Amino acid sequence: MKLDRDTIVNEALTLLDELGLDAVSTRQLAKRLGVEQPSLYWHFRNKASLLDAMAEAAIASHATAPLPTPSDDWRDWLAENSRSFRRALLAHRDGARLHAGTTPQGTDLSRALHKLQFLVSAGLPEHDARIAMLTTSHFTVGSVLEQQAEENDDSEGPGLDRAEAFEAGLALIVDGVANRPR
């Protein structure tokens, strides 16, 4: 097996899905790849850079979703953008924990700026557009974080339908932005 960044990240995501974020270590990863631990540092300067690459790869389905177009309704787009982000986070065990605290870089930053400009072009003041994007992002990460924590907990949960709760909270956010005085 040729050891490259993609191979390492894919195996690390497999390890994440099997064991959870707390069990992902460079030692465990090197063992699974059949290499010595220092070999990983040729591709990633430290565990933090590996985790950043894993977080980026984990949300690739969201990061490559079509960007909004001028004909899109901003309310529908903002809600669907959040749903797409949620699906990407839920695709991996501890996906929300892995993603929490990351900031967009490179292409992801360009896409975020395009989305911001779309909301501004749709009539939202720039400050409101920024806060709307930040709020929906934080709400989505928090919602998935709670859901994944509950899924990994063996105790009896409150029986809350997480998808319905997410949709209800998302509607409150979008309606709040839409009804904000300008």
TrEMBL record:
Keyword Repressor tagged: yes
Keywords of the record: DNA-binding, Repressor, Transcription, Transcription regulation
DNA-binding residues: 25-44
UniProt xrefs under PROSITE patterns: HTH_TETR_1, HTH_TETR_2
Stored Gene3D superfamilies: Homeodomain-like (1.10.10.60), Tetracycline Repressor, domain 2 (1.10.357.10)
Gene Ontology BP annotations: negative regulation of DNA-templated transcription; response to antibiotic
Domain called HTH tetR-type: residue spans: 2-62
Record-linked InterPro entries: DNA-bd_HTH_TetR-type_CS, Homeodomain-like_sf, HTH-type_TetR-like_transc_reg, HTH_TetR, Repressor_TetR_C, Tet_transcr_reg_TetR, Tet_transcr_reg_TetR-rel_C_sf
GO MF assignments: DNA-binding transcription factor activity; transcription cis-regulatory region binding
PANTHER family: HTH-TYPE TRANSCRIPTIONAL REGULATOR RUTR, TRANSCRIPTIONAL REGULATORY PROTEIN
Protein name, entry field: TetR/AcrR family transcriptional regulator C-terminal domain-containing protein
